[in-house]
Amino acid sequence: MISTRSDLSVGGLSVRLSGKAIVSDVTFAAGPGKVCIIVGPNGSGKSTLLKAVTGETGYDGEVRLNARPLGAYAPKELAAVRAVLPQHTQLSFPLTVKEVVRLGLQTAPLMPGDVRDRIGEALDRVDMAGFEGRAYQSLSGGEQQRVQLARVLCQVWQPTVGDQPRWLILDEPISSLDIRHQVLIMDVARDFADRGGGVLCVLHDLNLTAMYADQVLVMKNGRLLADGPVAEVYRDELVSDAFDFPLRIGTLPVADVPFLLPQAARD
Amino acid sequence: MTALVLQPLRRRVAAAQDGDRAPLARSAIALLTVLLVCAVLVSLSSGALDIPVFKVMATAFDPQSVLSGEDLRDRIVFFQVRLPRVCLGALVGASLAVSGAVMQGLFRNPLADPGIIGVSSGAGLGAASFIILGQSWLAPVAAVLGVFSLPVSAFLGALLVTWVLYRIGTTNGLSSVATMLLAGIAISALAMSMVGLLIFYADDQQLRDLTFWNLGSLAGASWEKVATCAVIATAALGVVLSLSRGLNALFLGEAAAGHLGIRVQRLKTLAIVAVAAATGSSVAVSGGIGFVGIVVPHLLRLTIGPDHRYLLPASALLGAVMLILADTVSRIIVSPAELPIGILTALAGAPFFLWVLLRRRGLIGL
After folding, report:
1. Which residues have C-beta within 8 Å of that of residue B71, sequence separation ≥ 6?
2. What are chain B's domains?
């Protein structure tokens, strides 16, 4: 498997949980400056694949981050090159929004004067400006998710370090957001990639995937069904096969962005 | 005066409302330090005998020959009875409160406590074994360890329980909090039933000793106990203070803490060993003093927030203050007799625990 200096590359990756194969023989490479989105039906192994890539779960095969095997990183070094947004975060104690976001600054502490500004700017990016003093537990699910993203952004504030990219790994970052904030958060991911960072993201929304992905990975039954740009992957038979559900790809004449509608299954 | 005290205070409150409770927490630690000094002075000057504390301290280095008989008596009571007792109270209070705070952070549950996961029960079983079997089966041990037999057996009990708990709760190098909590309940029950079995072998005097030890008391304070406790507690406190940032990251869960660059398994191992040592040594010297580990961290979280960098030192200070004051009350309330301090802490602590439980019931469906 070829791995350039600044890729996130996965080779022959398998994960077994209590004897059952959850992910089998997955190979792909995601590059810097690109948004790579993993899609697939429930239980297809998307989240487990992400957990292997972040080192959260054990695996067979190979995961390299910027050409270096995941196991060769000390936890602190790894935290300095990649940040992970989990699907759900439940706090054990009542923290304020500011205290939650500040946890993202633990790995690379700033001067005390800059902390306040950085936290303010991170909250501003996720449209949560002015929420510093609020109790995290009093926020709605979508607001909590955006605060967590602000924390994750603080951990990898600059998308590059030297000539190496930093990585944002997002597990369903927009699952509980309204449509305006879905787009806003995906814009944040897009911007991170445009400035040289790498983004690996699990999404359920195939239309937003079509809008934002440079590379789409389609998972089914723990295997990689397809890997390529939207134009290649978004084909009626491939998507219908992945989801075991008749789907038809359409294209808006204005933007030339494909879309798909569940109504198509009815005719 | 207004400019010196009120204005900085207002700024700190404003910062806290802005979501940053660190300045407030630093002030609280300073305030608690002052409170500790006051509590020590109050405790040193109260008791059956009226002692002029400042006079005794001022003449501390005078040779015995220049002191009157009364002064000499005061000096002996002060240095051989009250001072070691206050020191022991401070050490035990600090150890129990910090152990509670660390356990709660580690188990991500404000109701966790060394008493709950069975560490205290293990220490209790160790101590009970010695009290009852010390003159028969364990006589050789007693011959070797002498006055340290009771502390050492309680300490070993605590370490044994923690080790067993850790082995049961850990698979593939990762420990599950739920398994550990449930195993702790089972181990507590087992330890209690073994104490129950031991009681069948006990004679009247041993039963009396056991009951009083179990209620908890600082009455037997001596400089040897202070020294034993000080060495272990200081080391344990030093270790857990160095873990503050890791414990903070655990607010987000074990996986997220790992993503923030924390060695979670190492953090858990160190925290558990430190808590076992601190709890074991406290239980050894003072018996079953309960609820300090629940009440103190909880009160502090309400005011200065859960950040462990401030919560742990503040818990140590407030734990010391509360135990010294509780001990003072227990000495004077039924003077010249003494109330076991464990009764007092349980009287205040148990309703508090229920109150916390009721407040959380709606939140987590307990």
Report:
1. B55, B56, B59
2. 38-361 (1.10.3470.10)
Q: Is B109 on the interface with A (CB under 8 A)?
A: yes
What CA–CA distances, in Å, run from B281 to B163, B232, B269?
16, 7, 18
Does residue B365 surpass a pLDDT of 70? no
Does the structure show a pLDDT above 70 at B366? no
DSSP state at residue B221 = -
According to the model, what pLDDT value does residue A22 have?
A: 92
DSSP helix/strand/coil, B15: helix
Question: What is residue B64's DSSP assignment?
Answer: G
How confident is the model at residue B259, as a pLDDT?
A: 93
Query: b/e map of B69-107 (b: 16 or more CB within 10 Å)?
Result: eebeebbebbeebbbbbbbbbbbbbbbbbbbbbbbbbbb
Judge whether A63 and A49 are in contact, CB under 8 Å.
Answer: no
pLDDT greater than 70 at residue A177: yes
Q: Are strands A198-202 and A167-171 parallel, antiparallel or unpaired?
A: parallel
The mean of the pLDDT values for chain A is 90
Using the Cβ of B18 and the Cβ atoms of chain A, whether some distance falls under 8 Å is answered with yes
Give residue-wise pLDDT tens across range B272-283.
888 888 888 888
- In DSSP terms, A63 is beta-bridged to A10
The reply to whether B258 touches chain A by the CB within 8 Å rule is yes
Considering only residues A252 and B186, tell me which one the structure prediction assigns the higher pLDDT: B186
CB distance A119 to A45 below 8 Å = no
Decide the pairing of beta strands A215-220 and A35-39: parallel
Amino acid at A41: P
Residues of A in contact with B255 (CB under 8 A): 51, 56, 86
| DSSP 3-state of B4 | helix
Angle CA A131–A133–A134, to nearest 5: 65
Q: Mean pLDDT, to the nearest integer, of B44-66?
A: 80
CA A76, A116, A126: angle at the middle one, nearest 5? Answer: 80
The per-residue DSSP string of A184-239 comes to HHHHHHHHHHHTT-EEEEE-S-HHHHHHH-SEEEEEETTEEEEEE-HHHH--HHHH
The whole-angstrom distance between A100's CA and the closest CA on chain B is 9
B287 DSSP assignment = -
Domain A8-89+162-266 class, CATH top level: alpha beta
Chain A environment of B258 (Cβ under 8 Å): 55-56, 75
Kindly give, in sequence order, each residue whose CB lies less than 8 Å from that of residue A26, ignoring residues fewer than 6 positions away.
A10, A12, A13, A14, A45, A49, A61, A219, A222, A223, A224
Contact A173, A189 (CB under 8 A): yes
Q: Which residues contact B105 (CB under 8 A, 6 or more apart)?
A: A92, A93, B247, B250, B251, B271, B306, B308
Which residue from B20, B249, B259 is facing A83, i.e. has the nearest CB? B259
Enumerate the β-bridge partners of residue B2.
none
- Predicted local distance difference test score (pLDDT) of residue B175: 54
- Show the DSSP H helices in chain B as ranges: 7-17, 22-45, 53-58, 69-76, 83-107, 119-133, 139-145, 149-169, 177-201, 204-215, 223-242, 244-249, 254-259, 264-286, 292-304, 308-332, 341-364
**Model pTM?**
0.86
Q: What is the share, in percent, of chain B residues with pLDDT greater than 70?
A: 93
**How would you classify the pairing of strands A35-39 and A198-202?**
parallel
ipTM rounded to 2 decimals: 0.88
